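Researcher: Checking consistency across runs. Here is Ribosomal RNA large subunit methyltransferase K/L again:
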Amino acid sequence: MSATNTELREWIVTGADGLDELLVDELIALGASQPRQLKGAISVQADLATGYRLCLWSRLASRVLLPLFSVPSGDPDKLFQTALKYPWENVLREDASFAIRAAASKGVATHTRFASLRLKDGIVDRFRDRTGNRPSVDSEQPDLSLHLFIEEENISVSIDFSGDSLHKRGYRVAQTDAPLKETLAAALLMQAGWPARGQGRLFDPMCGSGTVLIEAAQMWADIAPGLARVRFGFEGWMGHDVNVWREVRDEAVAMRLAAQEKSPPQLVGFDTNPDALRSAQRNAQAAGVAQWMHFAQHSIGDWPLPNDWDAAETGAGENFTVPGVIATNPPYGERLGEEDSIKYVYRALGRELRKHLPNWDAVVLAANIEHADALGLEHKNTQRLFNGALPIFARHGRVIPAEAELPLAFYPSDDELPPEAMDFANRLQKNLKAALKIANAEGIRCFRLYDADLPEFNLAVDVYDGRLHVQEYAPPKTIDPEKAAMRFKLALRAIRHIMGLHRDKVFLKVRERQSGKQQYEKQAKRGKFFEVREGKAQLLVNLTDYLDTGLFLDHRPMRERIAREAEGTHFLNLFAYTGTVSVHAALAGALSTTTIDLSPTYLLWAERNLALNGLPDEQNRLIQADVMAWLQEEVAARPIEQYELIFLDPPTFSNSKRSEDVFDVQRDHVRMLQLTMRLLTDDGTLYFSNNFRKFGLDEALMAQFEIEDISAETIGFDYQRNQKIHRCWRIRHRNRPES
């Protein structure tokens, strides 16, 4: 180690896979030169002061290594002999401690532990032979760390100038599960052009423990990322120049002080988890940037509008209507159990960004390129990175402004219809004119258009936000099948003529009377889901695979009622199907929702619906269970009422293979309602609905509870000709507390 402190030396800088280009730019900006790509690292030339500066200032590097020597691979004795002859007395004191951290290049099969032992033996024997003493090995807190790297051709030995990995800035005093590494957070921001872009405005809608925001604040304020670290690896090196290091550090301190004169940035972080927000606040305080941070508890589904982000909550106010930068790391791995549901979180994020923050720059991490695509950004760049061993993608793009939702409209085609189809066509045209007038006035996008209005055309036509779902009811045995088939073909011609839709927007099914588990069986396997809007909710419908689409249109008024009453309640949804009512309740401000169904298929669908609306699973439980069994267990375990609002919509009959018992709504409804009412608060409301046309409510229940038949209030404009589609009751405890 005879080189002076002003001479150029070789340094090896490691970083996460995928950061090479950004890392090279950063190293050059910090004063290094002659960058050369190695396997998993960058070689540069720099003097000692610059080596110190790389450790103190690099936001992307994992380690800074000062090479000592290398030997050919495949000869452990050569490693030992070289180490034995190396002047270690110029590297570490004989009374110091050291550790060896070994790694191997990808694809190299070797025993790193054996190589480490041979290196250690050479070091120890060198000191013992020369002085009779030897340094000790301390793998936890060594005075000096050595880095041994095994490649196919060579084994290299270096001083680990950084000591601990450089992503450990020293400010993380609290953390959440699976936090983002600080180096990756910095890379995310650099890809978005921060701090040059954004004019000091940055928003992280899923901020977790605050890493992205803290890194952004430090970049804005020219705070060296290593300034808060207690120790670097070079401090145990015999060649350490305290004066040079003090100059480099004092320079960084001066820059931090000078940055206090800059205009403060506006940094806003939202998260659904209050514990994460508390961790973020503590970390920001430890980093010395808390004065610029503004945290609030929000899910994607309940962001306030930017001009409502008042100073009390965010310190941002109307300034956040001016485009800035969005940078975030959605919880793509650890939070959601079903991988495909994550895509819908990204859809929700993209939709809300378009609605609230048009023309902002956004950079978002995703574990899957399809998830990144679901954001719908105007693409600028996609970078493949690694978070540990996990490959991830950083998608950078502009937030495209949301398009105004147009009223529903359908335009007839020029096709001529045969006379036999005219009666049906005229009725459909009449229905469409009346329905669109109401639907567009009330913002309704999904409704029933035709329901066997003419006996000879025995089918139902439903509108799903610009698409049609056509169900042919199975004809009675008295009708000639050929005649029925001919009429159905005529109806289809009339539908396509009146609605003016291409075949790919018209979906056909034959509906027969179902019983038991048949209602849950697949009719096809296309797996195609469409997104529709209903009120504040975005919901997934499948128009091909199942008998029902995932959205019971006749319950639309009931969902609207639940949304009006759900704010501030704990909501329970029994026989929940695809969880659409839970979505409405959660978006309306329910404190929690609990969604219970026996079918894993429908619970997965419910999970996707919640994800599509950006609703956190912490507040929205999904439970796969037989409802009757769950009620009995819940009442036995928790005799205290816990739900202010409950929706109970059982099937008429169920003999699912997942349940040991056969459910019959007429036979079992008394016990079911009694159990459910045990879970209802004294001032709560239970809505009980079913579609069994012969159903009769047991009169004994009238004496126990306050019951009102509200069926007429829950029938929408599109079911006025079929008011027996369902029955619905509002049930409350007698002697309710006065509101």
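Researcher: Does this match what you'd expect to see?
Model: One thing to look at in this run: The chain has 18 helices and 30 strands.
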